[in-house]
Design a protein that fits this description.
Number of helices: 1
Strand content: under 5%
Order of helices and strands: H
Largest sheet: none
Helix content: over 70%
Low-confidence stretches: none
Mean pLDDT: 95
Radius of gyration: 8 Å
Distance between the termini: 25 Å
Oligomer: single chain
Number of strands: 0
Shape: rod-shaped
């Protein structure tokens, strides 16, 4: 998993929790 993908994944999770 590349860093950009990890960041994207984190953002996705964050938006879902909102």
């Amino acid at each position: 998993m590349s860093p950009p993908q990890i960041v994207d994944s984190c953002l996705h999770q964050f938006r879902k929790s909102l």
